[in-house]
Amino acid sequence: MRVVLCDDHRMFVEAMAAMLTARGWTVCAVAFTAADAEGVIRCHRPDLGMIDQGFLDGGGLELIRSLADLTPVTKLLLLTGSTDIAAINAAIRAGVGGFASKTQDIERVIAIAERVGHGKTMTDANVAVRAMHAPHYPGASATVENLLTNRERDVLVRLGRGQSTAILAAELGITVNTARSHIQNVLNKLGVHSRMEAAALAVRVGLVDRSC
User: Fold this and answer.
1) Rounded CA gap, 36 and 43, in Å?
2) Per-residue pLDDT tens digits for 129-158
3) Domain 2-139 sits in which CATH superfamily?
4) In the chain, where are the structural domains located?
5) pLDDT at residue 140 in the model
6) Which fold has domain 148-204?
7) What are the backbone dihedrals phi and psi of residue 2, each rounded to the nearest 5 degrees, phi first?
8) With b meaning 16 or more CB within 10 Å and e meaning fewer, what string describes 58-86?
9) Angstrom distance (rounded) from CA 204 to CA 211
């Protein structure tokens, strides 16, 4: 995969470039300012542009907006240290393909980058929980898939249908105590505080048909 790295933290860029190259990626160019980043991305037209949200000479969001005409050829991944909902919403509207928190292990950032580069909407868990609750987030369903196990997804679907714990347990062939444990795991992973909130999220991301 061909990638351009755009970040004003030189040590991060150098470490990321070395690790990507070792995995067979082609690092076309690096940029340490937003002004340089737009030029090198337009010049190289990479599969993926990894862009720092907090460029000192101008935010990554503005850069993503200016590169909107390059998508879908070049996918854009926003590197962020923030899970601020307003910033997430703005990035979604700007056309970002995914988010990766720079507080995550670099291996995790690379895994997210690879999926975004192949056209999948992807976030890490730190950003995902906030992103799912942002209006118009196109990757909400995929985000649920990434955060939950298959069993937890089954539980969420049934919460969305309004099933009681007993009925949910019976349908899944598990004990009520096990069902309660799964429900709590779902609530924790999705960052919600009640079954009702989880059910509403299940409907919103399309796991449950509103007409049913």
Assistant:
1) 11
2) 555 555 555 556 666 766 788 899 999 999
3) Response regulator (3.40.50.2300)
4) 2-139, 148-204
5) 61
6) Arc Repressor Mutant, subunit A (1.10.10)
7) -95, 130
8) ebbbebbebbeebeeebbbbbbbebbeee
9) 12
